[in-house]
Amino acid sequence: MTTQCAQESIYNLLPRLEQKPVKPPRYISTFRPSVKREAEKNKAQWKTMGPAKVAVPSPKNFLQKHSKEPKLPARKKEQDSKKLPALSVPRRTDHPVMGIQSKKNFINTNAVAAITGLPKKPQPIYVDRRQGDKYLLETSGLVPKYIKKKDYGVTPKYVTRRNEEMKRAQKEYEASILEHLKKRAMKRLSDEERRSLLQGLKKNWEEVYREFQGLSVEIDTIPKKIYKEKLESQMKQLEHDIEVIEKHKVIYIANE
């Protein structure tokens, strides 16, 4: 109303009817009657402690002791009789064979075997005490039976194989050390390399000296002073290197 009063217009003076918004019709599902019918049909079906038509258990079928324990199936007699192991001892019902007689004369056979048989060789023994205590000679270590073996004094194969492996490893180790020493060995400069090195150092000294001569007479700033000290240190180092190379004819260089 404040906005309408603020605007002066003839149309605002006429009374207007308030138009209420028309609400759309309420949504109603098409499945509502079928759902309502099913709900009324199944209502109060489970009010008791179970379905209404469940049969009451009989009092004769009460829970007995060990009734819920698992039981093994009964064994069949035919299978038991087939699976019996063979006995090494005779059964109680078995009877020995009776009435068998041998016509062999054991006295004569034993006498013939004793006459024709070779006499047994006595076991070699030794006595090391005056009381006459006897010991077997074979297990005493006095019989030189190991010396008579074919492989006596021969080095076993595994020992020779191990010695060869050790020698091979030692050679490889020595070769690697020699190669390492060769790499680290010092190299000797030839005369041409020494001469070219001297010429290069002298050339560098001349260039640094030329720059030093080109400095201003008055050094009044810090950068000029630092630059002069730098050139002087370079000239001193070059003069030292030139003196060392000219003094020593033979020069060795260590490999890094």
Your description of this structure?
This protein has helices at 2-6, 32-41, 77-82, 106-116, 157-184, 191-213, 222-247; strands spanning 125-127, 134-136, 187-188, 252-253. With 256 residues, it is mainly alpha-helical. The chain has a two-stranded antiparallel sheet. It is flat.
The end-to-end span amounts to: 100 Å
Strand order of the largest sheet: 1-2
The residue-averaged pLDDT reads 83
DSSP summary: helix tally: 7
Output the helix-strand order: HHHHEEHEHHE
Beta-strand percentage range: under 5%
Q: Helices and strands: which structural class? A: mainly alpha
Task: Looking at this protein, list some descriptive labels.
256 residues; mainly alpha; two-stranded antiparallel sheet; two-stranded antiparallel ribbon; single chain; 43% helix
Summarize the structure.
The chain has seven helices and four strands, in the order ααααββαβααβ.
Write the layout of secondary structure elements.
Layout (H helix, E strand, L loop, with lengths): L1 H5 L25 H10 L35 H6 L23 H11 L8 E3 L6 E3 L20 H28 L2 E2 L2 H23 L8 H26 L4 E2 L3
Antiparallel strand pairs: 1-2, 3-4
Helix pairs in contact: 6-7
